[in-house]
Amino acid sequence: IDDTVTVTLTGKIIDEYGKDIPFASINAVNTKTEKEYKTSTNPDNGNYTFKEIPAGTYKVTYSKDSFEDDTKDLKITDENSITFDSKTVSNKTLSNVTLKYKLAQTGSIAGVLTGYNAGDKCILYRTTSESAATVPGIVLKFTPQDNGYFFIKNLPSGWYIVAKDGCAAPVPVNDAKGNFIGYAFANENDTYFSSWMEVTPLTTTPVPSTDQ
Fold first, then answer.
1. What's the Rg (C-alpha) of the chain?
2. N or C: which end of the chain has fewer CB within 10 A?
3. pTM beyond cutoff 0.85
């Protein structure tokens, strides 16, 4: 193997349901030199690129929080002779890698968003606490079915809220006694309220019946 030869490879990481996994880590270790080459999937999808990897034999490990690690064999003899997971690579594109969820730590959310327009994209926020002092973070963007129904599986335990894409940052809402009850979202057309949904392992949380 001529290790002066380098190749650029692309690939994709998905979950067991065929959905892309963004922000996943990929670490290739040369089995002879022990040199490491690292990259990650894109923020918006499961695509990744290894740039100018020298010819050689590698152990490639794929990892992401809430998923089980997976390791594949990669061998680069020259630009036209590459094998990955015991299969010949064509067009310098590695076959998809599927990561399995650590199911015991995940739950689901299902329901119908009222006041939803077909084709609208939504954002799912998550925090580990329902306290108003905790700023929720964006978990993923998704498009419900035309009738507003959605079912999101394999979510880590925590508190979740759903908003339409394009809204301003969520604003805490308190009841008449000053108790925090959820968040208000505003876009150029209207303002609406979304309450917390608690996700626990191995359960499906229903969407509240109030307007989302």
1. 22
2. N
3. no
